[in-house]
Write a structure and sequence with these properties.
It is built from two helices and eleven strands. With 172 residues, it is mainly β. A three-stranded parallel β-sheet has the order 1-3-5, with no helix packed on it.
Length: 172
């Protein structure tokens, strides 16, 4: 259903698809809020792509905790994502997000890909608050924003998943 001109709200009839694994509604003109019924089959759903729509709202906490979901969501970066402990991919690129760097994402233990490119993030990227920030991160894309100041060395030194571990080199 991606890349069409589908408009309006996402139909609650989708709630009947209890074993849905992939839902790609990207690049349409959908609006409204994320359907809470999606949390009832979140253990099966591995890809939810809603980018380039006008979907808004918060991700319910139970949905976030029970999910193996890879999220690609357009809109505001909801703080409820901090509860998505199984989240592997977060792509919020090419949106109109206007905020400071969401450093609270550093606590997500499974996050491998973080794309915040082409938004209006501004200010400094603050020093990490946790001992092992972005522990599994392999892709960290902050390009085309209004960020300033240096990237904290503590982040760079903790990006161990990006390091070349072949032959014990351990270099970025």
């Amino acid at each position: 259903m991606a890349n069409n001109k589908i408009g309006g709200k996402v139909s609650p009839l989708i709630c009947g698809a209890a074993t849905l694994r992939v839902l790609d509604l990207s690049n349409n003109s959908l609006m409204g809020t994320l359907l809470e019924c999606l949390m009832s089959f979140s253990k099966y759903l591995s890809v939810l792509n809603l980018r380039m729509n006008m979907i808004q709202g918060v991700i319910p906490r139970k949905f976030a905790e029970d999910s193996n979901l890879r999220i690609d969501l357009k809109g505001h970066c909801p703080k409820s994502l901090v509860h998505c402990e199984k989240l592997e991919v977060l792509n919020l690129g090419n949106n109109g997000l206007e905020d400071t760097f969401p450093d609270w994402l550093e606590t997500l233990p499974k996050l491998q890909v973080l794309v915040l490119r082409s938004n209006m993030f501004h200010g400094f990227v603050s020093s990490p608050e946790v001992a092992r920030p972005f522990f599994e991160l392999r892709i960290f894309d902050l390009s085309n924003n209004n960020l300033s100041g240096p990237l904290p060395v503590r982040y760079i030194m903790k990006f161990t998943a990006m390091m070349n571990q072949d032959k014990g080199w351990g270099k970025l």
